[in-house]
Write a structure and sequence with these properties.
The protein is mostly helical and about 160 residues long. The protein is built from 12 helices and no strands.
């Protein structure tokens, strides 16, 4: 029992240790580089209450691990992060804005990750979908604005979603 407590304590310290550069936590680094197995291990290794805190930890830029996975198009990582949260927590994390006002959808759209955009929108509740798509960053740009002229498949998908309303 004591060994398990010490190992849990050590894991929690490891998980909550920040990189000295931009304030990324272990989950941020694993998400950024698409290491879904590390993300799974982190989920399995910590208590659900601690897991929720871990998912919403932000680096110095105000970005969560979900921002990093969305920016890089790591859908398998996203599939490990979002289902571990309640719908309310998931919605909060999806709409979380970084220091520049960007959401996960902004990052996925700007980088042309159609599958990631689809997954993020599928993860939203229906009542927040339109708001999520229409959210503006600090420069007044929506996810659709970021995709137009650069990633036409993403722009077409977001336009089709908006036309449903």
């Amino acid at each position: 029992m004591l060994a398990k407590a010490k190992s849990t304590d050590a894991m929690n310290r490891l998980i909550s240790t920040q990189d000295t550069g931009n304030g990324d936590f272990l989950l941020h680094v694993a998400s950024k580089h698409g290491h879904k197995n590390i993300v799974q291990l982190l989920h399995q290794s910590i208590h659900p209450e601690e897991r929720n805190k871990l998912m919403t930890l932000c680096n110095n830029d105000g970005q969560s691990a979900l921002h990093h996975a969305s920016k890089e198009g790591h859908t398998e990582v996203i599939k490990n992060i979002l289902p571990s949260l309640s719908q309310k927590e998931s919605n909060h994390l999806l709409q979380l804005r970084d220091n520049c006002g960007s959401t996960t959808l902004h990052f996925a759209s700007e980088n042309g990750h159609l599958t990631t955009v689809e997954l993020l929108l599928e993860s939203c509740t229906k009542d927040m979908l339109e708001q999520f798509i229409r959210q503006e960053d600090e420069n007044g740009r929506t996810a659709l604005d970021l995709a137009i002229g650069r990633h036409e498949s993403v722009a077409a998908f977001l336009t089709a979603c908006l036309e449903k309303w």
